[in-house]
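Show me a record, fold above all:
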Amino acid sequence: MELECRLDADYIDSAWTEPGGTRLVKSHDWAYMLSNVEQHFPADWIMLVYRPDMASYAWWHEAGGFQIKYPCYDAYQDSTGMLAAITRQNQCILEYAHSRNATWHHFTPEWVKSTFGHRVEFAKTFPDILVTVFK
């Protein structure tokens, strides 16, 4: 999230110093332009992560809220602004997922294994987090 959401492959690539490999580009702000992401990067996967508004808001506060050093959340101004942003972003995610007939799954080690072929263990799981991938 240190770079702005720009649909420019060279700009996105500038975040890495080593060529090749799999790259994960993530930001809450991509939620506002998912159709454009799909159009600009048709060969790339899009993974959506959804968590209900109030659960996301509560977790953000539990994780440190505005006291978090990185990423910087100053643009949201206050807790009311943060909740409004979470609500808007979730709405965009759900609308895009609906338009693509998404199938949602719980974010579990089994899902990661079946989707990406790698076994991972989570220190903590959250039963209210749902994910979907468009390939």
